[in-house]
Amino acid sequence: MSLLSVRNLHKTYGSGARALPAVRGVSLDVAAGETLALVGESGCGKSSTARIVVGLAQPTSGSVSLAGEDLHARVHDREVRRRAQMVFQHPDQSLNPHFTVARTVAEPARLLVGGRDIEDRVVEALRTVGLGPEYRARRPRELSGGQQQRVAIARALICDPELVVLDEPTASLDQSVRSRVVALLERVQQERQVGYLFISHDLTTVRRIAHRVAVMYLGRIVEVAPTEELFENPQHPYTRALLAAAPVPDPRRRKRVVPLRGETPSASDLPTGCSFQSRCPLVHDRCRTTQPQLEPLAPDHAAECFAVASRPEHLGVVGSDGRP
Ligand code: SF4
Description:
Layout: E1 4-13, E2 20-30, E3 35-39, H1 46-53, E4 61-66, E5 69-70, H2 78-82, E6 84-87, H3 91-94, H4 101-112, H5 118-128, H6 145-157, E7 163-167, H7 175-192, E8 195-199, H8 203-209, E9 212-217, E10 220-226, H9 227-232, H10 237-244, E11 295-298, E12 301-303, H11 306-310
The chain binds iron/sulfur cluster (SF4).
């Protein structure tokens, strides 16, 4: 059984002519000890999905279950809330500047766990993220960006969650600090078998930390695959364009991709059929009338594209040797 199971999730903000569908039929699973990365452009629905998964926002429809428990039916149940925690983007904004580190880290434990050992829990949570007890009395302004993010991770870990949703956890960190925070997350996962839903624009970090990657475009998952499979053999035209725009260590391995055209449509005025049609170099008549669905292409690899499902060689992609 999956640790996290999301099924046909929809989230629409507003209503009527002002309705803005942010999440449109997302289904995903995360196993214990697994990292699933969610990637895609800003506004594609990643953060809305994340907030729903930890119970900070209600879905319009669909279900989220954690180890078989319906999260939204029991959103006020402290034990269910304890099991899924979140690390927010920009720790300098998510940490209360007036709270000491001890108070910040202790807060979820006081709310969701209780008991008399909270001070011990704080020390243990700080130790887990590599901070000594001397940090308890400090405030966020007295910490570096990396230390702030470690405090944010300690705050998420103090309740001993089974799932942690990480929303751009390394976005504000420089390269060396980012690498240390990723190493910390990997170690915690190995020690505790915690599942991560890892949201990021940073494809280099995604490739390092994720076991599988799901690519979102305008509220839908358009491709999902094991990480190396996705990076080495992307199928959906949007995934190919996204990866082609990212830096690669060896430019000779960069794949040539038919460039995207057109503009991203407004989420409040989506076309009939495939949402990617206005930018897709492979668009054909069926794409303008029918919404494609995620179709399996290989074990654990699925994509939402008529062209991929029928004729993958027609994606117009060749390697550096000129062959498809
Ligand atoms: S379904 Fe059609 S428009 Fe959509 S990505 Fe595939 S080829 Fe392009």
